[in-house]
Amino acid sequence: PLDSPAQKLVFNRVNGKRPQVLLQQISAPEECYTLAHEENVRFIYEAWQQVEQQLDGSRSGESACGPVQYVEKNPSPGLQNFVPIDLEEWWAQQFLAKIENCS
Predict the structure, then answer these.
(1) Mean predicted lDDT score pLDDT of the chain
(2) At what angle do helices 87-102 and 20-27 cross, to 10 degrees?
(3) What are the domain boundaries of the chain?
(4) Which of 37, 49, 53, 71 could bridge across to 33 with cysteines, CB 3.0–4.6 Å?
(5) What mean pLDDT comes out for the span 55-83?
(6) Cellular component GO terms, alphabetically (predicted)?
(7) What is the pLDDT of residue 53?
């Protein structure tokens, strides 16, 4: 059983027609990123990585100067239950939702 080749999946169309979801995806315009956009994203990413490294270094006592993390002295009561969003997790959920909707 382990030596036998994997079976191929075959999908038969109903009445020979493509599903509407696929037609909508094919006609949807794709996002195009310019070289300038990619350079800006790379610059911001690299700059933020530097700031995070410097913050970690200042927390561990490596350097006396560098970025300082802002902490509100008098927090607003309206923001008492505020929970920051994990943007990477949100994007992952959006990506998975698109995959599930297309299948």
Answers:
(1) 77
(2) 130
(3) 32-60
(4) 37
(5) 78
(6) cytoplasmic stress granule; nucleus
(7) 87
